[in-house]
């Protein structure tokens, strides 16, 4: 890590500028501490993408040094922009709850910047400890977790619809800033439909031109990976619905969608989380499904200087059938989950697992169960 840091610090001196170069060095050397971001869990956002690399997730959970990004400053800018989008809608949602007869309020974790106290509330007006007002309060989002799968993350908000509405129907909030790159990755066929060749005067070759306004208008529901991420949040929090807010970066145009989760679409993702947990318990990294991608290679090159091939084993998860006998008990319909399935064993349930038992209507027992409210009390109480 020291060599990697030194290399990046030297890069900042090659084209020294008065303003940005010191900022880049400050970002590289400041303590990397985020009390709300855990690195020893699997995040719903990473599980929801098709290019997920379980091998790189294994390395992170096993305590391998996390590689820094080559284009770290560009990523810092992108992440800061994303936080800005979230802050804006969270602030507006908070203020809706302060109206005389609000239709709903913003529930979650709040922090007082004056005394650092944190508490759970719905659209509060002051700190309950030091009585500081709105200007000193900060929304810290909504923590959700699924210990049985070592999944944890933060939803962007929790819409409190009041006591008359069952808690399962209170939607969580997910804010997405949508740019051209987001759409190209999530909906390439849509982009192709609105892209055509045009001839520019004075040029010999045609250029591709995309009608991004038409592409934006064609979006009628959240993208698949966003639906998966939301369903994982819902399964962890025991919620059936989610509000997605999309803001189109080029124009500031907005859309919102109220979606009822289909928990069946995350069965594979939950199985992947269990596979990674099992691999960590066994101390044997899973194969990269992409044949060795940039994500896992970055870990290996930082640790060994070259890609580590010796741990690749296509039989991972296929051994010790007998060791899995106890792990399938909670999969049986109506069975009480074992202490391991509830997260009591940090190593997770043994793998391989038994096939899912299908219900007559076609759904799976696991998909039904993960969408149920957590057994332990996780209901959040607002201040009203």
Describe this structure in words.
The chain is an alpha+beta fold. It folds into 2 domains: 1-33, no CATH class; 38-178 and 217-370, no CATH class. Helix content is 32%, strand content 16%. It is built from 12 helices and 11 strands. The strands form 3 sheets. Strands 1, 2, 3, 6, 7, 10 and 11 form a 7-stranded mixed beta sheet that branches. Strands 4-5 form a two-stranded antiparallel sheet. Strands 8-9 form a two-stranded antiparallel sheet. A hairpin with a 5-residue loop joins strand 1 and strand 2 (118-122). Helix 4 crosses helix 10 (267-282) and helix 4 (54-61) packs parallel to helix 11 (294-304). It is globular. Residues 307-350 and 354-384 have low confidence and may be disordered.
Task: Write a concise synopsis of the structure shown.
The chain has 12 helices and 11 strands. It is α+β, with helices and mostly antiparallel strands and 384 residues long. The protein starts with a helix and ends in a 14-residue tail after the last helix.
First CA to last CA: what distance?
A: 49 Å
Tally of helical segments: 12
User: How many individual domains?
Assistant: 2
Count of individual beta strands: 11
Strand content bin: 15-25%
Average pLDDT level: 81
Round the Cα radius of gyration to an integer and report it.
23 Å
Helicity, in percent? Answer: 25-40%
- Biggest pleated sheet: 7 strands, mixed
> What's the order of the H and E elements?
HHHHHEEEEEEEHHEEHHEEHHH
Low-confidence runs: 307-350, 354-384
Main structural class: alpha+beta
Shape descriptor reads: globular
Descriptive key words:
two-stranded antiparallel ribbon; single chain; 384 residues; seven-stranded mixed β-sheet
